[in-house]
């Protein structure tokens, strides 16, 4: 297992990871890089090109604010993650693609991750990634989708994800009505908890009641602030 949680570091700190081809868990969280963009890209490519044995990968809060990523970088990174066929847990909280035309590609990332059970995705508004989930995932137990368009326009997508996966814990940033919650509860027989992260929620008491009624008390609602 390798966990990296550092601030204001250079890519040199990650160099040993390029030789660790037998890693099963890799967590890179809270790192702030001061390298040139070319150094950064080359280092991350070397690290991830031989990580086919990974079962858990977390990439979150990696600060590269002043680095410019291009479509080819996002596509390459999507491809490298998609080759980690043994992943059962993927936490992917990156905004590297917020200024690129090509977004992190769910087709490239998810198509061969047949054992994926935990998926936490927070990125640029990316419908393409979300629509790849019900197409390729069937074993998900825990799902978090953040920074995503309002569920009111894509409720059918979330219902399809729940119908195809034994999800027990669902975390969203976009549930705001009783109708939405009822649809989610009815779509899944395994769902136990829906957590809504929000900056403003009109009536949490009525939403909690709707979930309780739609699931016969099985689904519990939880709330947090984005």
Task: Describe this protein's structure.
There is one protein chain. The chain is 31% helix and 19% strand. Strands 1-2-3-4-5-6-7-8-9 form a nine-stranded parallel beta sheet, with helices on one face. Helix 3 links the parallel strand 4 and strand 5. The relative contact order is 0.09.
Please outline the helices and strands.
Elements: E1 2-4, E2 25-29, H1 37-48, E3 56-60, H2 71-82, E4 89-93, H3 106-110, E5 118-122, H4 127-136, E6 142-146, H5 155-164, E7 169-172, H6 178-187, E8 193-198, H7 204-214, E9 220-225
Parallel strand pairs: 1-2, 2-3, 3-4, 4-5, 5-6, 6-7, 7-8, 8-9
Helix pairs in contact: 4-5, 5-6, 6-7
Structure at a glance:
The protein has 226 residues and is of the alpha/beta class.
Task: Walk across the major sheet and give the strand order.
Answer: 1-2-3-4-5-6-7-8-9
Largest pleated sheet: 9 strands, parallel
Indicate the percent of residues in helices.
25-40%
The portion of residues forming beta strands comes to 15-25%
User: Cα distance, first to last residue?
Assistant: 30 Å
Count the helices. How many?
A: 7
Instruction: Please give the radius of gyration in angstroms.
Output: 18 Å
Quantity of strands, as a count: 9
Summing up helix and strand content along with how strands pair, one would put the structural category as: alpha/beta
Shape: elongated
Order of helices and strands: EEHEHEHEHEHEHEHE
The low-pLDDT segments are 4-8
Q: Mean of the pLDDT scores?
A: 83
